[in-house]
């Protein structure tokens, strides 16, 4: 049956879709199901802790969680027939390691083979995102989830064993920052409703609402009912090579400081800002190109149409690629948007922790994995999406995959004293695992365990 165009019931939508959490502690548990009874028993055991998008007012939950199911996972637990399952989009069904998805992601076969989860042989069925107001609250709910997983016969990836840790955020990492030192979590879609031309319209993220015509659904039959009020999540574990990043800044700052008339310290911050499009305190280059301005650290009211030479912000700076705003695009239409719920994992980098794993847990929420997440990633790997720079064939300066065949890994920074030319950017970020999940509605989760 066709889905309704009414506004969603927030009590039926998983909370992370419509709101960002501010709980200081989080943990992300990744599972493979063994049997249908075990999987259903697991979901039933943790269902009371699922947080909806309803306003909690002053009664902020001490601990809570949200649940994502991959296509293989929902095949195990749902009552959908083969015909029903065919209604889900191919990108979701085939997964991030598939040839189709890798045309955009370009993680590389050798890298995929070393993923901690998400490739052939390490199938992910379920990801549980746990949040706590403090460490004891987090640990209490993590134990409830882990015990339910053991009881259901689930296999967990990244369990606490042999010195490894689950994907857990540490209190020693400043909230809303990443290991490269940048303020994070600044620019999110406003999630208003009812404007079909607005890329921040909630219908571009929530399945089952017809305002956004590019959303693949499913929108019909039993699959449409199952998916309605849900949202897709591209869940990524991204290692950040802080040593390589810091050495790159140090080396290049020493070379460019005399040319630009800057101290080495100022040249270091200038280079970091040009890679990202924002200073490390968050202030955007478009609004304050010469130095950071703490008063603008969360500013989002700016565009790039007046910076057609890249003198303020280089064309392939990460923030300009990931959200080109009013940039003239090669293809007509508005740039796709993502809801990001990222957070750092691992200890801060220093001489004692240098060998430890650290990076970003990326939750990229969207209504269409192919038309939003993968399209943006294709821009990240080959920044040829705008007519402003018709000969631009470079890459996102921070997070692109440099091993992509034919990649132009150079980086040019226009300045009034002539361009600063970087012959080849190193690999700063490496994917450790990926899973494409559906965050089902709460009514759908309840129907699974009935």
TrEMBL record:
<dbReference type="InterPro" id="IPR011008">
    <property type="entry name" value="Dimeric_a/b-barrel"/>
</dbReference>
<dbReference type="GO" id="GO:0005829">
    <property type="term" value="C:cytosol"/>
</dbReference>
<dbReference type="GO" id="GO:0004601">
    <property type="term" value="F:peroxidase activity"/>
</dbReference>
<dbReference type="GO" id="GO:0046872">
    <property type="term" value="F:metal ion binding"/>
</dbReference>
<dbReference type="GO" id="GO:0020037">
    <property type="term" value="F:heme binding"/>
</dbReference>
<keyword id="KW-0560">Oxidoreductase</keyword>
<dbReference type="InterPro" id="IPR006314">
    <property type="entry name" value="Dyp_peroxidase"/>
</dbReference>
<keyword id="KW-0479">Metal-binding</keyword>
<protein>
    <recommendedName>
        <fullName>Deferrochelatase/peroxidase EfeB</fullName>
    </recommendedName>
</protein>
<keyword id="KW-0575">Peroxidase</keyword>
<keyword id="KW-0408">Iron</keyword>
